[in-house]
Amino acid sequence: MVTISKLEIENVKRVKAVKVEPSPAGLTIVGGKNKQGKTSILDAIAWGLGGNKYRPSQAKREGSVTDPFLHIVLSNGLIVERKGKNSDLKVIDPNGQKAGQQLLDVFVEELAINLPKFINSTSKEKANTLLQIIGVGNKLHELEQQEQEVYNRRRTIGQIADQKAKFAKEQPYFPDAPKEPVSASDLIKQQQEILARNGENQRKRQCVTQIQAEFEQVGREVTRLTAQLNAAQKKYGELQSDLAVAQKDALDLRDESTAELESNIQQIDDINRKVRANLDKDKAEDDAKEYGAQYQKLSQQIDQVRQEKADLLTNTNLPLPGLSVDDGELIYEGQQWDNMSGADQLKVSTAIVRKLKPECGFILLDKLEQMDTDTLKEFGTWLEQEGLQAIATRVSTGDECSIIISDGYVEGQEKAEEEQSQTKTWKPGEF
């Protein structure tokens, strides 16, 4: 990884003359009061390494008669300079060969010199940045879309199932009603058949009565007509035989009642109403069961998609342990971005920047005064463990600051240079 070894800045924005040797790993804090030149140092580094798109609108220090000067020595031996009226870029590699911005772009990550661009982005944008650099953005997006589609279908099915179950519960049920609606024409036909059979029975009964009367008349005729005894006896015998047969038939006859049919005919509307109510209730219960089964099936699909998402991230080389993406949100140690501590936010940002371009071993951070000293220490320790370099500014003059900027100078640096200049003696041949 490439880091910044030495830095010299003159007459850039508020900086008059500054020399800094940042710690190769960990946190180098540039402290000082407001408007002393702290942020100007970071802007100068961004301009020097990031190209003219980071050139300050007023690069030359106000009131200075000397053009801006930048001299940055990187850990890979490259020397980056900007000087002169146009502050043109000059990059010299360890072998003394000239190079340009294209070489710097190989290992300088844009977010490393412009971290607020990442920090101030939306939660979705942060998550998308992470997903793209680990190479699963498109696949995870497809899974999330699939999950949302199945979830919407399941919600609709669940609503319908609840409606069907509620409708079934509210329907009346009549256990004594038949399973199918009753037909009035069938009942009337049955009634007519019974009446026909009963009419035939009545005809047979009348036949018995007639034979009985005739039999009695003939008997009297036999008594009265002795002369016709033979003929009368023969007739009597025949009638006696017919009477026996008719009586035997009459004894086996049983009349059928039409009372139940007549009652059903009268109550057919009420019966059919109950039948239809029972059918509606059965249908609603069946529908509720069917939609309930569909809901369970869709729930299983959602669980499967979510497991695929989890497996996708689990099997991916994430830039930081405990870092993940859930529902399009960046998650670290179970917390969304707005619930992370300041140190965790910086850890996540730095880790993602490093993942974007592993060759870039430094980041620039502005305005760390919102972090307490314990948080700064925690973040600095993590940087050292990761072998990363951070150059940051903080409105403070405390012990946590690596250097203090005052009126465009590093405190103590100007005095030391003056003393060195005063003690320098003239030697022949030296000018």
UniProtKB/TrEMBL annotation:
Region (Disordered): 412-431
GO function terms (MF aspect): ATP hydrolysis activity
Keyword Coiled coil tagged: yes
Sections of the chain in a coiled coil: 215-256, 281-315
Keyword terms: Coiled coil
Domain of life: Bacteria
GO BP term, example: double-strand break repair
Rad50/SbcC-type AAA domain mapped to chain residues: 6-308
Alphabetical list of Pfam families matching this protein: AAA_23
Keyword RNA-binding set for record: no
Name used for this protein in its record: Chromosome segregation protein SMC
UniProt source species: Sporolactobacillus shoreae
